[in-house]
Design brief:
Layout: H1 13-21, H2 29-46, H3 48-68, H4 72-109, H5 115-118, H6 127-133, H7 137-170, H8 176-216, H9 221-233, H10 235-250, H11 253-258, E1 262-265, E2 270-275, E3 285-291, H12 293-305, E4 309-311, H13 313-320, H14 333-376
Parallel strand pairs: 1-4
Antiparallel strand pairs: 1-2, 2-3
Helix pairs in contact: 2-4, 2-8, 3-4, 7-8, 10-12
Length: 405
Amino acid sequence: MGDTGEKTEEATPEKLRKAQEEGQVPKSQDFVGALGFAIGFLALVGLLSYVFTAVEEFTRAAIDAATREPTPATISRLIRDAVPLILKLSLPIAMAVFVMGVFSNVLQTGFFLAFKVLTPKLDKINPVNGLKGLFKVKKFVELLKNMLKMGLAAWLAWSIMKDALYDMTLAVTLPIRQSVDYSASLLFEYLIKTVVLFVVIGVADLLYSRKQFNKEQMMSKYDVKQEYKQQEGDPQMKGQRRQLAHELLFSGGMQNVKNADAVVVNPEHIAVAIKYDQDKDKAPKVVAKGMRKHAEAIKELAKQYGVPILRNVPLAQALNKLDIDEDVPEDLYEAVAEVLAFVYKIKEEQENRQQKQADDRDAARKARMAQMGRHAAPPSAPGGSGQGPGAPGGGPVRGGGRLKG
């Protein structure tokens, strides 16, 4: 497809879903590495006493064996003892790093399975495409980031060593235990500063990755319209919408949306209906909520029953975390109060307009009736005092004929 125009629109939920299926998600490996390094360091600190004791015992045993029985059999036995010792000391730290790696990935992207990534593609093993990838801007950015991290780590090491260089020189004259303790303190200080540095770099890289991903996924207005047309014309999508409406109907969701005070949207993929009855409820509550297709069904019901739909991204995201019929927490009172005040103001204005229209119609009706009454009143007798013929108190009634003489 050719150029479809400037990409000024945010990616739709459908495009983000397809990108997730392809394994394209905003993720920072620096963030994963920083948290892994931090948890590994903390695990090492927690096991430090145990590690030192085990290593000290093995070292004493190795020295004793080397001085007493320096035979191939002794060396072989020491190697056999060293392997389980290394596993016993390293496995807890490795497991902690592994768990943190999984957690940090899920923390960034949520839990999902992208099976399309596992599908073998010839393009991935094409050396020409590999050479082209070397000259992408992303590769240069990654190279600069790695050089920056290495430079900062080296600068940290130098800043610690230059102040302790004199003491490090004299440490060789100290007993071995004190010399080891002094070296360990320097190493501990370096590791703490390095952990902080890598965590800061990881968080900054995560924010940068999300910004770049959102920029890459942006769509033109033409793309948004085409996607909407495809979804509207897709029989499967129509069937899903009918099914969702059916589910809402029989789960009581339609009645909840119909009686709601407002529907707060995200605006595309979250819709939450809220209601507040001052006589029954101690706080506003969530009466219906949905994401993506369910959100569209809720918005359609709200339009059908005239429930106001308001866009408030942070509030919609916060309310979506609540359960149905759960009261709104106190930290959201102010935001929900603003929404309800706006809705009540709209309802009051509508009621005032309707009342004014009713008053105008009533006044017009009375005016028409009064005008009709004036046209229907009988005319007064000419020359009289306003009394009709034969009225009480009038003169004698004369016959219509002429008197004969």
